[in-house]
Write a structure and sequence with these properties.
With 166 residues, the chain is of the alpha+beta class. The chain has a domain at 44-158. It has 2 helices and 7 strands, in the order H-H-E-E-E-E-E-E-E. The chain has a 7-stranded antiparallel sheet, with helices on one face. A hairpin with a 2-residue loop joins strand 5 and strand 6.
C-alpha cells in the first residue's frame, strides 16, 4: 500500500516559478514606464511652470502698489502696503541681475528671491492710464529662458491704485 505524500511536484514548482517570473516582469515594466512619464525637476515644462507661478505671485503683490519709484525696461521698483496690515509700506523690486547668466530677482524688505535663473532676456513694458498720462495702468513682464522651451513667458501686472509714473 502506498502512502499519499504531501507537497508539490517538480512540474508544479517549475510552472509556478514561470508564472511568478511573468507577473514580476510586468510589474517592473509598469513601474519603469510610470517613472519615466513623471516630469523631473530639470524638465523644461516644470521650470516654465515654476517661473509662471513666481511671476503670478509678484504680479499680485505689485497690483497693490501705491507708488512706483523706478520703471525701466529691465526693472520695476514699487511701494506696496504690507500684507500683515500693520500700516507700513515696503519696497518690492523686480529687476534683472546682470549675469551671466541673467537672473530675475524679487527684493522685498531685506530678503531677495531669485525668480528665474538662466534667463536669456527680460523686458518690462508699461501702459499709461488713458485718462491720466502721468499714471501707470499696467505693465507686462516678458522673460525668455536660456534653457527650457525657449518660448517667452509673459505676465501682466494691473495696478489697482494707478500709481504715478516716476
Amino acid at each position: 500500500m502506498r502512502r499519499a505524500r504531501s507537497g508539490f511536484t517538480l512540474v508544479e514548482m517549475v510552472v509556478s516559478m514561470a508564472l511568478l517570473t511573468v507577473v514580476m516582469g510586468a510589474c517592473v515594466s509598469i513601474t519603469s514606464l510610470a517613472a519615466r512619464s513623471m516630469p523631473s525637476a530639470s524638465d523644461p515644462t516644470t521650470e516654465t511652470l515654476e517661473v509662471r507661478r513666481a511671476l503670478m505671485r509678484v504680479a499680485e503683490e505689485l497690483a497693490t502698489a501705491v507708488e512706483i519709484t523706478e520703471a525701466t525696461s529691465t526693472s520695476l521698483i514699487a511701494s506696496v502696503p504690507d500684507p500683515n496690515n500693520d500700516g507700513r509700506v515696503y519696497q518690492v523690486m523686480v529687476a534683472q541681475r546682470d549675469g551671466p547668466p541673467i537672473s530675475l530677482v524679487r527684493v522685498a524688505r531685506v530678503s531677495a528671491d531669485v525668480l528665474a535663473d538662466d534667463v536669456a532676456s527680460i523686458s518690462i513694458t508699461y501702459a499709461m492710464d488713458p485718462t491720466d498720462n502721468t499714471r501707470i495702468a499696467s505693465a507686462m513682464i516678458t522673460l525668455t529662458q536660456s534653457s527650457g522651451t525657449g518660448q517667452p513667458i509673459r505676465h501682466p501686472i494691473v495696478f489697482l491704485a494707478r500709481p504715478m509714473a516716476p
